[in-house]
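Sanity check record (used in CI):
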Amino acid sequence: MNYTYRRLIPLTLGLLSSFAASCTSTGESAPPLAGLPTKPEISATTSKQSVVAVNPDFFIQANLAKPIQQEDCTLSDGTKTSCYSITINPTPQEHKMGPWCPTHVKDGKDKGGLWFRDGKIYDVDGAFIANLADFYADPDWKLVNPDGSIRVTKTQAAFEAAARPDVDPNYNNYCVEGRPEWYTVQAKTYKIPVTPIYQKTPTRFDRNGVGVAFNGVNFDPPAPVDAILNAHTLAPLDDNGGHMNPHAGYHYHAATGRTKEIAQSDNHAPMIGYALDGFGIYALLDPDTKAPTDLDESRGHSDAVRGYHYHAGTPGSNEIIRSFRGAVVNSMSDLPGQSGRPGADGRPPRPR
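Expected output for YHYH protein:
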């Protein structure tokens, strides 16, 4: 199996305009899993969309907490079918996590992560933090101390107070970062239909996320930017498109080309993971840096090789995909590691 790890092009302050620069590494395919298909299977659906079965060999084998199993499951449309139960340790093998927040106004972009606004993505360096009042045309942004140091959540308690839905007022005007070493990594179980079932009507996400990268890290719905900004906090992503959540751990809000990719032989954009409905998620740009122009409202389309599939949004869009076009497993909320402590309103916390 050949796959590519594409690196994010270094940014100046402004739009991330291209993924053209890349580096390639080749790995050997993992041995076939007993009883599981080793080649994609294509079948027709009543909606006349072709679908391609999930290939479990694409997941990084070293991250699996136990062998992938097939089991009976019921989908959101009532269909009883077969699903893969994938229990995997969500620790990226391809990259380090962080950094997120610079600690001084003189810090360069190597000390911070990324932030997004209006479809553009920005380096969170010290100058960016110092300029937030102008950036948002709001004088109440005051993350910088008189000595030039930046107010950053430096303890687990501070992070959890700032990262909750009702931000602790003591942590307004903070750059919010959680550190992986504060939390014990717990394996997560994903149940994904072996063969996706296309639905004519898209459905919105719930709190269980959008999908999963091949390293086991989940793709999350859009970050709740309004809630973050209303408290004059910033919760940057790292250059890999991820950050921490006190309950869900490390997760991605953007696809930046830093995770395992499955190269395509026909110059199509590489595959980066699976949505929870079983449809593949592919990078936005193909090797010629061209993006598809015929995506539907869920950010998907179909072709003869891959069937129906999604393309991730730009890193600045704050979305991997826009909605599900397939049926998902009913019991996702009951899976170990998938639920979190309720927020202040009694509902489960939104991912951040």
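The CA atoms of residues 223 and 352 lie 5 Å apart. If this sentence no longer matches the regenerated tokens, the check is flagged for review.
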